[in-house]
């Protein structure tokens, strides 16, 4: 997931760097609008996928709370691990939403 996020940022920088070298500024505006729309959709989709994973982990945490006897002495370890994963996914989803909003604003 971290790799996808870093790759997305790299692509954004690459697209912005390439778009600044165009000579025809009218076509640059049209290209940027299309690129911004595509990046907005990409980051929104990533945020939605992350939200699904967050929901899955919250269900698992609920199961850990209600049926901790199934996991024995490892229950606390699972909870801590799940909390860390939730934190990472929530931060990544938040960043993806921020990036989507940023590119949405640049479209306008």
Short description:
With 108 residues, this protein is mainly α. The chain has helices spanning 2-19, 25-66, 75-107.
What descriptive keywords fit this protein?
mainly alpha; 86% helix
Number of helices: 3
**SSE topology string:** HHH
Mean pLDDT rating: 81
Proportion in β-strands: under 5%
How many β-strand stretches?
Answer: 0
Shape: elongated
Helical residues, percent: over 70%
| Class from secondary-structure proportions | mainly alpha
User: Kindly, what is the distance between the CA atoms of the first and last residues, rounded to a whole number of angstroms?
Assistant: 29 Å
Largest sheet: none
- What's the gyration radius in Å? 19 Å
Low-confidence stretches: none
Overview of this protein structure:
- The radius of gyration is 19 Å and the shape is elongated.
- The longest helix is centred in the middle third of the chain and has 42 residues, at 25-66.
- Helices cover 86% and strands 0% of the residues.
- The protein is mainly α and 108 residues long.
- It has helices at 2-19, 25-66, 75-107.
- It has a domain at 40-108.
- The mean pLDDT is 81.
- The chain has 3 helices and no strands.
């Amino acid at each position: 997931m971290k790799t996808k996020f870093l790759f997305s940022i790299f692509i954004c920088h690459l697209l912005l760097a390439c778009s600044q070298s165009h000579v025809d500024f009218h076509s640059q505006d049209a290209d940027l609008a299309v690129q911004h729309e595509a990046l907005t959709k990409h980051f929104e989709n990533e945020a939605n996928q992350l939200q699904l994973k967050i929901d899955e982990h919250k269900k698992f945490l609920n199961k850990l709370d209600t049926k901790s006897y199934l996991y024995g002495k490892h229950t606390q370890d699972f909870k801590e691990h799940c909390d860390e994963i939730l934190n990472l996914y929530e931060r990544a989803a938040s960043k993806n939403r921020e990036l989507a909003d940023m590119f949405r604003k640049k479209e306008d």
